[in-house]
Protein 1
Amino acid sequence: MLPLLRAELARQHGDPDRTIAFAQQALVGLSENDQLVRSLVDWTLAVADWLGGRLVQAEHALVHIVAAQRAAGEHDLALSVFYELSLVRRARGRLDAARRTCQEALELATESGRSLPAAGAAHVGFAEVLRQRDELDAALDHATQSVALSRQLAYAQPLAAGLTTLAWIRHAQGDRTGALEAIREAERVQPDPGVVALLNPVPAQRARLLLANGQVAEAARWVRARGLAADDQPSYPREGEYLVLARVLLAEQTPDLALGLLGRLRDLAVAQERAGSLIEVQGLRALALAAAGDQAGALAALAEALALAAPEGYLRVFLDEGAPMATLLGKLAAATAKGQATAAGVSRPYLDRLLEAFDQAGLGILPRPRPGGVVVAGLVAPLSARELEVLGLLAAGVSNRAIAEQLVITLDTVKRHVTHILDKLGAANRTQAVTRARELGLLR
């Protein structure tokens, strides 16, 4: 078992080659009765492929391990492997496949009567897919279940992952204090900063939250403490840290330095066929190019990111970048409307959906007319198509709860729409909003 323990240490430090070497040593001398050890070695080798950026091989190996363990009735091990399979599929940009993996894990936990805590990892995988698609209420439900179940486990990774996802959901919902509380607890759960970022994303995610809250100096100190530099050759296991560095460089208004780093991250993601990474990297490259004054390059990079993101419904990867991304998306929407080459291949329905999500987050672009939206002189900001629907129901005297039922959306979403309508119309309440809308000709 000593070689297997050494393989685990190498894995935690992000060294795929040593992980493989030690795992293969562990196979020497095993008998046919040592099936559990052999399964653990196979699992370790699959994770080593993941660390090494060989995601297709890792996915195939993990699928095989899950099937073998289920056939052997080893459901606890199968449930653990399911979690890493979902991570690999998300890294490949396959959100639907990751969601199905988590659903299958939850069904296995229920059908086999296994302990519910083992389902915690499946819930956090579900939560992250839903969060990426901006389905925050459902994501919050799964993340909350994940944290509650994972607290019962001795293995810290699912709990730390659940708390990290919970932090970003709270941040997206405007609860910055709650977000920081969740990420601090995640740090206490998985405190070892020596574990590579791919397996322990908590420190990098905390630094990202600091940046999102405007604490650039503190995030920059963290980057320096980790020994990161703009001219490094980044590796996949430390990609999360280098993405934080790129954001720090952008916040410090040094886009040229960020572009060099992001170019190397892009090349690595392309070589390893990691679409999930490429979407995020190209989004950041677009922001860096825009900051450097290369408008055409920025729109082309963003268009590439959107083309990759659209089939799987990614939203939060763009939304979490805030106002700079909203501004750039507005420019891309204008280029798309004009049929410019830089916007070629961008799905208009997906772009409209993304712009609507920015509207709901209070980050609409001025002026930005688009199908179904209305720009009227005297408006603080244009009303989106959905906001016009809600406005019409407000004028009819329909309650928030009834609006939610009629439009098949959550009550919280209705409240956000109403808040945005009041802000855009410069109204203090629903009655003033309806009166103002009639004055502007928005209601018949």
Protein 2
Amino acid sequence: MAPYWTIERWLQEAETSVRALLLAPASENAETGALPLAEQRAWDDFLGEIASFRAAVTAFTLGDGRSALAFCEEALAHLSPANLVARAEVAYAKSLAYHALGDIVPAIQSAREATTLAQAGGDISQIVAYTCRTAYSLRLQGKLHEVLQTAQLAVTRGTTSVGLPHAMVCWAYSMHADVLREWNRLDEALELALQGVQLSEQTETIVALYFAYSVLMRVYQARGEVDVARVAFQKSEVTLAQNYSPYRRDIFLIAEWVQFWLSSGEVDRATLWAHELAQQPREPSPLAREREEVARARILLAQEKPTEALSLLEPLRVGAQRQERWNHVIEMQVLQALAHSMGDEEQEALAILAQAVQLAEPEGYIRIIVDEGPPMARLLSRLREQEDRQVPTRYVDTLLAAFREAGGAH
């Protein structure tokens, strides 16, 4: 895939040429000085297709959600009602744009609209890709069971009658694996994560491969297999570099990468990344900036600076809660609990951990809590001792058992 600015230049040149054609007299109809009406409509439709592609590329590569939404409106002003493929692309671009803005509810709605339009248009690549986009957005909303169902649906839709999967099914394998990892079903997660990597490699689907390697890294890490986890991370990093976008790194990967560095003892690497981040222009995407700040909060905790970490996390949690990104809310509350505990504020730590547990229990979250290691295990044990009626004790017992299993694995 060409760099963003090259693609943008091509699209601008194409738009300029089409607009000039629409304004110029047509030799086929010199008396009226205009193109035949059917041809005008065809070229106008093409302008809509150009705008739809600009919207998708801008949202996916730069994370500039507001500009992408403006391109979407421009596209819809030109596209004919019958152009279902392009209209599906516009709905997909809207989903990407809302995602960049952190507005996960309209992101899910737009992804579902894109899938419906793609089904009407009969484009299997679109159908699978947009179904997977729906699954990914549902993941951020914290709907793990729906993610699993949607990922399985993408596999069904993208598998031929003789059992051959479409290239984009690799996304579904990776997201299915990530949910199983979260539920601590690590053997099943590993099998699916490897399937996602293998299909991405075979089909050279680079935009899915760095994500697939990152999921594989987290599965290996949860299994206590640090060396192969590091290999998976290195492959994720190398693959991203082939089609590098700071936005895609930050919105998909950076929080997990920093967590991996810190848990692997690579504090210097994490600190260097934070230093480099401070020297760079900020991302236009609010969600990418949030992911960066969550990663920074982890580094501050590793440096035993809980007050600074809390000052970062609280406004982020409020924003994530307002946008109903419950996966991120749970993550931030877990980090806030650790920060309060580090600052000898046990009651505050237990109170916010209780909130996280209540949010996490319906969807069966495990690794989001267990991956925080011994400090979280001690805090969770204290919460269990309180026997708070509002805290689901059977679920807390499940978490504590997972901690014991993780200790044995490590």
Protein 3
Amino acid sequence: MFKRYLFLTARDFITYALLLMSVFHVASPQQATISVYGYVRSAESGELLPGSIIRVNELSKGTVANKDGLYRIILPCGTYNIYISCIGYYTDTIKIISDTVHEIRRDIFLMPSSIIVPEIVVYADRQNPANEIMKYVIEHKKEILGKLRSYKFKAYTKTLLKMDEKGEGDTAIVGILETQTRSYWKYPDHYKEEIVARRQSANFTPEQNIFTVGRIPNLNEDVVTLSSFSIRTPTNQNAFRYYEFEMVDTLSMDDCNVFRIRLKPKSKTIPLFDGFISISDKSYLVMSVDIKCNEAVDLSPIKDVRIYQQFSLFESKYWLSIESVTTFYVDLAIPSVPPIFCEQHALLYDYSINTAIDEEVFDRQIIQILPLADSKDSSY
């Protein structure tokens, strides 16, 4: 759970602060069988498209283009269809055929997609279109989410710890932790993670590496919990009491219109979110978020928590998270120890929806470390 993640971070960083000063060496990954990489750009303007989603359906694997529009995905030898999608553009497909060990560069150029404004948005009587969309989201989400009884997925999580030792605004990476997990969720609130493999920089022990994807805050729920705070979401049944909504843009992805909406908290004393959400006109559920907490959420010594998520459509009705980026910094208020910046990037894939999950999976231990987790090499 995100609650559990924040508690552990605050407690364990006191120990980590001194360890982070040490110099470490990270082992180089072994050469992959096929490394497919390249840049994702707009075919019309040539601009880079960070955040583009890259998927290999044959393997249920995927990745996301970084802030420079660069992607890289490692595959075993074989033949694959790789799908590339981005909000505002038509999805494209490339075919990869290889039976030898080497790198393949394939730059992708996506065509902008057209926008068709659906009937649900009412403009004639000057109503706020963002309010109309959010009303529809709130009214219909229970009908859709009520059909989601369980799911399981795999995740790769990489956590970077950074520090500005000289106080000059130039941060350096002082820790890297990676985990590969299997996660299980079952209605109403059962959750379990299994660490299948993990590795970390030399200044951490395996026992300290429990930085998993955690319970991702879901803005399709009425309330989400961060530490001891219950935060009302913009899809809460009483959302209009707490938020102002403003339409920022209407985009599209293939045949799906995407409404980008600015949400502003009305109160500084009630725990709320501040930022942007994107809504799909296919299911009227949240398909991406870029948010932070308002002043009422005090997680000291953790500060400036920001959450970015992307969701993808499964079975034509469920928007489930495929990418989650959480950033924050920890200020221990120790003069000799500068703030520690944390960036956690998680990729989620290989979903199995509404399949039977044994109740015995959900024991008291939220995180279980499998016996061979520390023996897996980098190729895994």
Protein 4
Amino acid sequence: MSEDAILQYHFIAFEKWKSSRGNKEYQRNVSSVKRRINDLIKSNEQEQATDFIDKYSRELKETYALMPSLILRPTDILIDVNALGRTANFYPLLIKSYKKDKTEKKRNFNKVAKLCEIMSFRMYGVRRYRSNTALESLYRFARDFNGDFSNLIRKFKSLLDEYCSESNFEDSLLSSSFYKTINSREILYLFWKYENYLRTNEQPLASELSYKEFSETDRRKKLSIEHIAPQNPANSQIVRDKTIIPEITEEFQESFLHNIGNLTFDPLSANISKSNSEFDIKNQKYFIRAPYKTQNELDTYLNPETNKWDSSSISNRARKILQFALDYWNYDSVT
């Protein structure tokens, strides 16, 4: 993070800036500070100018001192906020809430960070609001925060409810065009969290997939989104009557192909090697023996009457993923 960015975040969090349609002081934070000092000097208030400089310098130094804790030694929840990539919206509030939290292990700060992660995923990611939506509300939260975490959390939840209610979130997750409308980074993030949910809640238990593994850039290990029923089955070398995929009708393509229940993740190299192989080949060669529980569970969703991966398989799995997402990104649970 650049020094200029830290200067701006500090100004947003600790100075009583003003904002109007044509004048947002936080966008010109350095000149705004200089103007305040010059105005005091011109008004023959040298003592107040000196006090302002001393206070601003001291608090800015404190902000720089705490940044390593936020950047170099982040908590798990901060790693998640960073993973979603919209930190500029949240850093003023994170800086100030970290500084104001005197509890052991920063319990209140972690609640604020969790709400930031929820907003980043639900509102900007899944609901696809522009990155500057509600930006000034977040900045005002930081500016006006005086240490009352209960009030801050209440206002944060109200903002989330305004832009991404439970029903809005659910509708977006269950959209038939989920894969086409949601950024692949968000989909990967969702399945990373779902994978770790399976690893820690369903037997046999396993250690979590780390952020390093999730964010791997090596082509052999980099994760990508995989359709279970393939997007282009006509290109498959497998004869259609030997597959457990039903006929890919126009209705299936429109309603189920890009549904969340028909998606998983896989290393990019493996995904390319599978190409558009039909599901039975994928299942036999890859999914059953895959290192990911997200893939291991797929055969349990085959239609028991037809032994096919069909619309009912996709719908049933989508409901499970939906329930996980509603629980995991539930802002009402942050108290």
